[in-house]
Design goal:
The protein is an alpha/beta fold. The chain is 43% helix and 15% strand. It has 2 domains: 37 residues, no CATH class; 163 residues, P-loop containing nucleotide triphosphate hydrolases (Rossmann fold), CATH 3.40.50.300. The protein contains 9 helices and 7 strands; from the N terminus they run ββαααβαβααβαβααβ. Strands 4-5-6-3-7 form a 5-stranded parallel β-sheet, sandwiched between helices. A two-stranded antiparallel sheet has the order 1-2. It is elongated, with a radius of gyration of 23 Å.
Length: 219
């Protein structure tokens, strides 16, 4: 008769290498999906790489120097302000990489200039494959971390300004995690995009000013 201390072996396939191996059903600490720690590590690394694929390739490859800032942005909504090249997008990328280490959390990354160009095209067309509202709804209500990169430099039409306000307003009202990067100050955002948008941003995003020289020019 088998005692509780004796191994109770059962065959299965490794999730990674598909090798048949035996695992001990009594070992609650062992992951029964993998035949070795190496297979387990490689499997979860591949899943992680899929989760970070939403982040632009450049920011996947480099890490932010400001560790405390990155840790601050994992759970707190922030607006990162400062001149070009001081590391705002790199910081947002490092925050995103930390966030998706938790498989239950997701990130959606938007380059704001490209987003606005697409939105303006949708407003100009008489017949659209998708309405401007449908296009923006998935970002507005995304129940994860939304990164708005390079926000606010474009001069907006009234319709696009209202759509931008709707995104910011919705995410503030439902306390949805949001990271914004911009070359503009809050006063400049106010002048370019209106006080409704700037007020909503500071209502739920902590302002962080990054200073320094353009790192791109120092390479």
């Amino acid at each position: 008769m088998m005692t509780s201390n004796e191994p109770w072996l059962a065959p299965t396939y490794c999730e990674k290498c598909h090798k048949v191996f035996n695992f001990d059903l009594n070992d609650e600490k062992k992951d029964h999906l993998f035949c070795s720690p190496e297979c387990e590590h490689e499997h979860y690394q591949q899943l992680y790489q899929k989760r970070i694929s939403i982040i632009p390739l450049l920011y996947r490859k480099i890490d932010c120097d400001y560790h405390d800032l990155v840790m601050n942005g994992i759970y707190n909504s922030l607006i990162l302000m400062g001149p070009s090249g001081v590391g705002k997008s790199v910081a947002a990328g490092s925050m995103s990489k930390e966030i998706v280490k938790d498989p239950k959390r997701r990130v959606y990354w938007i380059n704001y200039a490209r987003f606005i160009n697409k939105l303006q095209c949708l407003y100009r067309r008489s017949v659209n494959e998708i309405s401007p509202y449908e296009y923006t709804k998935k970002y507005m209500s995304f129940n994860g971390t939304l990164v708005l990169d390079d926000f606010g430099a474009e001069k907006l039409s009234d319709s696009v300004r209202n759509t931008t306000y709707s995104i910011i307003s919705y995410r503030e009202e439902y306390n949805l995690h949001t990271i914004i990067t911009t070359n503009l100050s809050l006063d400049e955002i106010d002048k370019l995009n209106g006080s409704r948008i700037s007020s909503r941003i500071v209502g739920f995003c902590k302002p962080i000013k990054l200073d320094g020289k353009d790192r791109r020019l120092q390479k």
